[in-house]
Amino acid sequence: MRHLLPILLVVFGLVGHVMVQAGPAWKKVHTSTGGRDFASYYYAAEVAIDGGDPFDTARMAVLAKKEGFRKSVHPFFYPPPFLLTVAWVGPVSLQTAYELWFFLNEGLLFLCLGLGIRAFGVPVWAAALLLWTWSPIPDNAWMGQANLLALAPALAGLAIAPKRPLVGGTLVGVAAMLKMSPALFLGWWLLQQNWRAVGAAVVTAIGTSLLALPLVGFEAQKRFYLEILPGFSKGDYHGLTVPISLEANHSVGDLADRFFPGPGQLLSEGAQRMMSGVLIALLILVAWRARTAKNPAAILGALTVLMVVTPVYTYEHHLVFLVVAMGTAAGGASQQMRTLAAAGRWAPACLWGLALAVTWFFLAWPLPWLREAQGALPASVQWMTRESKTIAEAGLFALCLVLAGKRVRE
Q1: Quick one: pLDDT at residue 196?
Q2: Helices (H), strands (E): how many in the chain?
Q3: Span 148-170, pLDDT tens digits
Q4: pLDDT of 315 over the 90 cut
Q5: How far apart are CA 123 and CA 143, in angstroms?
Q6: Are 107 and 17 in contact, with CB atoms under 8 Å apart?
């Protein structure tokens, strides 16, 4: 029976995923006509294929209106090599490409969880529950987002780097050039003095930029690195008009903006200083904890949380980045619970279980639940619900830091 249990858990997870997550998300994808967020990648690629500047939002909008699917499109602000992953869309309609992207996200999800089980201490039971309950998974899928596209090579690189640093560094370098935030993982290798992995990541970043030149010319690449990228720290996402104070924003920047509101769409100077100070302090805390870490996967989980909250915008779909970190924390916390319970220490064992359950619930609960709960509460305490996911991010960060000092049972 013990040999059958992992198989049963996998079946349980897959059935639940199809019923609760993939099925409803696919329905939204299949009935949509605008491609959601994927449209930004699609039209940026179309402009680049035509020889234009993919960061030219006006030209993207002209294409979108011409095809009749959308009246406008969000600006494209990903690194130039990202467009190599969507260069195939030229002869494909927006809707077909959007549906294919859905299945790519599904495959990447299973790859990430497989890597989590194999290399990062994620138990099979936790992976199965994540496939049932982690609401950022379907949100990422129907929004047509690219978070898992960056997470998968980052996890693979981190898993491989101890034995094959050049390969591992190359994979994390690829991840960082799809979305900039995985570059934070280089901090782990710097602490370990794994210079070969760091060097491979840097060379990969340069190499992929050169590889993208036929698609994204020198002037457009220079514009991204010198004009667009520097604006991220103050909330200028190449003209994105979504308010920083949006209730679905779960970043440190959002908290800073609430303490020091800024004009229009940008962070005030006070908010920028607060955000920078908090993130630097948290990085120092991770570096201090990493010196005596007995569980590297937990340190990487903490870094993943920082990777998610560092950008000014952290939406629900971005929390899919935490799927493996949550699984790692679940594996470590359950091990602590078993150890403490075996020693008859039931109170601390229950505290571990409570911390894990509360963190998991508030990171995973769907936004409609959050909004309904917020509407039912008095105005004076509605902020607790609004910031529940941000507080839960802090909880996961703390869990990972504590677990980093606990030896993993082989």
Answers
A1: 98
A2: 20, 0
A3: 999 999 999 999 999 999 999 99
A4: yes
A5: 28
A6: no
